[in-house]
Amino acid sequence: MAILVAGGAGYIGSQVARALRRSGYEVVIYDNLSTGFRRLARGFELVEGDISHEVKLRSVLARVDAVMHFAAHAYVGESVENPRKYFRNNVAGSLSLLNSVLDAGIRRFVFSSSCAVYGIPGEIPITEQAVRAPVNPYGASKLFFENALEAYACAYGMRAVSLRYFNAAGADESGEIGELHEPETHLIPLALAACSGSGGELQIHGDDYATGDGTCVRDYVHVEDLADAHVRALRYLEGRSDPRGFNLAVNLGTGRGYSVLDVIRAVEGITGRAVRRMVGARRAGDPAVLVADATEAQRVLGWTAQRGIEEMVASAWSWMRESEGGDWAESA
Ligand code: UFG
């Protein structure tokens, strides 16, 4: 069985491509390399193209049985400043991809969604039934596509799983793939950089939230656990004998929340170094607490996160040290 991994040269997509291959699937990576890295697709067939390029997609889709879609812009702050970019790619581009998939006769689709679809949650932990009211264009773009999948499932028999990630973190065991964003805005890589000397002081975005220690609480989930969930989602799609369309959305988190200060302590414990930091203002659009109720993923996919915050930080730290030297992205 062959799978098209759109956005497979990125941080999460490339982990999933490897997990699929380990599970016996053939993988074709489709990526425009706008934020992905050629190096992460090494050893795979890489087709360079944009998700809105119908002609290019047609010939690739003719060779695959299912599609996984990771090709999205994913900065919350940038989406507020430049919504046009987000709606063009994450909404218009994704819809174009979905139509190409449909026209190719493919009915199995796994979508990389986000806890950003919930906005400011009314209750913690967040279940899949919680109100979806995104508070930024990034979340709105993910919600739009989830709704499109729902409609395509009803109308055209699409069979889809949307996986709502909480905070993806960590690097793979082999040290091949770590978190690398340009610019970097995520807490764990910035905290590691702040104690390695390669980055500036970490700015804590507010310590006056109504949480235990005043800093925001998040549910961090290891990227290898996320990858495993995608393989399970695919098997779930394969295992359904009911020929009608359906659309399922599940949270991927650990169900445990860590504050910014908890993460800093974990980073200091793993590295044995102090995280240079200061407390700054709140970052616009940050909910105080986001923690998943992860029971649905366990019930439906048999998935639970296996790795904790220490493994996320330790693997990210090893990866950061190994990839230091600056040529990581360029070396093929
Ligand atoms: N934080 C800091 N200082 C920093 C960076 C982050 O204090 O320099 C804090 C943030 O305020 C937040 C927490 O650390 O409370 C985690 O921030 P990240 O930027 O690492 O992650 P986010 O929670 O903002 O983003 C994640 C995903 C998005 C997703 C979003 C949903 O990366 O894709 O959750 O809210 F949309």
List the helices and strands and how they pair.
Blueprint lengths: L1 E5 L4 H12 L3 E6 L13 E4 L5 H8 L4 E4 L6 H6 L1 H21 L4 E7 L22 H20 L2 E7 L1 E3 L17 H10 L5 E4 L11 E2 L1 E3 H17 L6 E7 L5 E2 H12 L5 E4 L8 E2 L4 H7 L7 H15 L9
Parallel strand pairs: 1-2, 1-4, 2-3, 4-5, 5-6, 6-11, 7-10, 8-13, 9-14
Antiparallel strand pairs: 9-12
Uridine-5'-diphosphate-4-deoxy-4-fluoro-alpha-D-galactose binds next to α6 and β8.
Q: What is the topology, as strand order, of the major beta sheet?
A: 3-2-1-4-5-6-11
The percentage of residues in β strands lies in: 15-25%
- The rough form would be described as globular
Radius of gyration from the alpha-carbon trace, in angstroms: 19 Å
| SSE topology string | EHEEHEHHEHEEHEEEHEEHEEHH
Structurally, the number of domains stands at 2
What is the C-level CATH assignment of the largest domain? Alpha Beta
